[in-house]
Amino acid sequence: MASKSKVLKSLPIAAVLVLAINLTSCISFDFGSSYERPTKGNTYSQLYSEDPVVMLIMPPINNSANVDAKDFFYSTLNVPIADAGYYVLPPYLTLETLQRESAYDAELFLEKDLSKFKEIFGADIAVFTIIKSWNKSMLDYTVKVQIDYIFRSTKTNETLYKKSGTVNVDSSMEVAEGDSFLAVLANILASSISTAVTDYVDMAVKCNNKALADIPRGKYSSRYRQDMNDSPGSSSVTINIPE
What we know:
alpha/beta; 21% strand
């Protein structure tokens, strides 16, 4: 009687197991077909399709409190873009034309038709940059630069490439436990001096190089059309100095 009781009790469990097996046999799992690994080819498909050659660097849009940031930053953009294999129109020569044509304020064209830049300069891409922050803090001895990069087609007005870059510099000197008042004061002074003399141009160069590192290679690059299976970088990059 005891063995018969055990059999009866096990029947519901057995039935559930059989039902579960039957259900799972009816369901097919295909994890590979719905997932496509992000590549530069599919992430920047429009840029590859348009195959631009000539880049026009627009004057930076300065939303920071530093009035000199626009001039500091403008001179640093052409190198990483040219190194990626594109022809970059000489910034300071085109700047004169932009000023003459009342196009120095790039924010006026950020969301407008760009076909005139194709007609006048022969540019395929207008490179916009927005300086969001360009500040030094003497209170905590830090320097912060934040830049948005936007590459827009002069043919379709579409945004083909967009990145954000941030550089954080910590200029504070470490104070060891037990340091004398004079030693602490010396460290504060050294931190203040280090923060004050931070080279903004060098920070901009570092930000450009890291933020724009995954631009699809242009026609003047040895890796032209060979980087389409590379992984794209993040939409936002941060550089901390020192690490």
